[in-house]
Amino acid sequence: MSTSRFSLHGKVAVVTGGNGGIGLGCALGLAEAGADISIWARDIAKGVAAIAEIEARGGRAKFYQVDVTDRIQIDAAVQDTIAEFDGIDILVANAGMNLRKRPEDFSLEEMQQMWNVNISSPFECAQAVYAEMKRRGGGKIITIGSVTSVFGFGVSPAYSASKGAIVQLTKSLASAWGADNIQVNSILPGWIETEMTVQTRGIPGVNEQIASRTPAGRWGTPDDLVGAAIFLSSRASDYVTGIALPVDGGFISTLFQVDPPTD
Predict the structure, then answer these.
(1) How large is the average pLDDT for residues 60-88?
(2) pTM of full prediction above 0.70
């Protein structure tokens, strides 16, 4: 198979939350594959640093300060991106949040905030780029889910619930927009070393426990998701839509593994 199937030259990719963590990893990877990058995020300093890193590697990118829970700001960023890059071909709806609390300790306001960021925002971003992708004859939308969509997560029920919902949203958008040649897929990261997981990694014994239950034997890094992001953004995945792809070092495969007796 020709590697040109994975080329993103001439494509424009929007990455929400692309100024850090998984989002930055995806932005760097898509830029290396040839795409121009539009980063939407709130933190200006991190955004400027992200753009500098992409440009240092020979890519073309621009940062827009956007609160992706605000539809007015989303729509403005769509128009600004089109004006700068002449279109939008790819959306990586990565921006998200987590809050570690047991169910009995969550307030309704906290649940709603989680929902706004992790579900309403990806939906509104996808909705906002739809018309431009349809006009251009197709596009690629990638949502960022989580392996916690597969199993219960008692210390962060709102997070796992929202990530379960993002998988169903992905399938629904794929079904609705397939006729427009827009493929919509989700990446389910496993345990990835980012700013969002610092609290979890700081719990005594957690690093070792997760590594021991992961066939790869380690936590992942944002760079580990780049291959999946490029594949789902490229024409190599033109007949792939509505899937939820785990990138977890095999963690899910061991969930129900029972060790045989030793005697």
Answers:
(1) 98
(2) yes
